[in-house]
Design a protein that fits this description.
By secondary structure, this protein is mainly α. It has helices spanning 3-23, 28-42, 49-74, 80-103, 106-126, 139-156, 161-170, 175-201, 217-237, 243-265; strands spanning 211-212, 215-216.
């Protein structure tokens, strides 16, 4: 591996972990566009470059999701009853969506990613917080919610917080508990997505060396190496830095990264 790639993956992990801890967002919004650009520059197959970026991002999220889940569990804020009921739908939706991603073209995935990140950016810029309108549904309702959250998460390689937190707040769960519970379902999303992309990429012809399924493992290991540590740093600084202003900066960054991704593959 060339030195600039080594440095790029390590630096990406630093940024992803810090942003996840500080702003409570998954790393896919940053990782997927950056990895797509790096993979295109490396000459990865054009027809699979976004698939590899999504799969690699999902796998790299696993340790960050685990760290976040542990931190929120230590504060006794995770609503484990909700996690238990929504997880079956999460697992099924995430895993099934990787099969859809496998048959979609690079361009289709890039457009879907850009559109969803535009939604996330607007949500962050305007600091949109849905008002509670109803109580949390039963097993059937949570299963459907889990299918949708998991499915979208797999297609854009996120931990699901952009959807699960507003949904739980809408269902009268306190914002802190909603964020903590979202962290609790982030790990099953990351694991199911990683397994799905491993299965769907298995046997694909022309994938780069050190790739298993659609997952490019050198990037996963290097990103995880640094993101695991900066997640805590970001979480600690969340109480001292102007998070509201930083969210607006990050919203602009998401839009620019999505535009860069479209430019890389179109």
């Amino acid at each position: 591996m060339e030195w600039y790639l080594l440095v790029s993956f390590l630096a990406l992990g630093l940024v992803v972990g810090f942003a996840a801890g500080l702003l409570g967002i998954g790393g896919g919004g940053i990782m997927v566009p950056v990895l797509t650009a790096l993979f295109v520059a490396q000459g990865f197959p054009t027809e699979h470059v976004v698939h590899i970026a999504l799969a690699t991002s999902m796998a790299a999220i696993v340790p960050t999701a685990f760290s976040s889940m542990r931190a929120h569990h230590a504060k006794q804020a995770v609503q484990w009853a909700v996690v238990q009921r929504i997880t079956p739908g999460i697992l099924l939706g995430t895993f099934a969506a990787t099969f859809l991603a496998a048959v979609l073209s690079t361009r289709a995935l890039a457009w879907f990613f850009a559109a969803f990140m535009a939604y996330v950016a607007v949500q962050m810029w305007l600091n949109i917080k849905p008002k509670p309108h109803r109580e949390l549904p039963g097993m059937a309702g949570l299963s459907v919610a889990g299918l949708v959250i998991g499915g979208v998460s797999a297609l854009v390689a996120i931990g699901g917080g952009s959807l699960s937190v507003p949904y739980m707040m809408w269902c009268n769960i306190d914002v802190r508990k909603a964020i903590a519970t979202s962290a609790g379902i982030g790990l099953p999303i990351a694991i199911a997505g990683t397994v799905g992309y491993l299965v769907n990429g298995w046997g694909q012809v022309g994938l780069p060396d050190y790739t298993i399924g659609f997952v490019y493992w050198p990037a996963v290991l290097l990103i995880a190496l640094t993101s695991f540590f900066t997640t805590r740093l970001g979480a600690n600084l969340a109480h001292t830095l102007p998070v509201a202003a930083l969210k607006k900066v990050f919203a602009v960054l998401l839009m620019l990264l999505s535009a860069k991704m479209l430019h890389s593959v179109l």
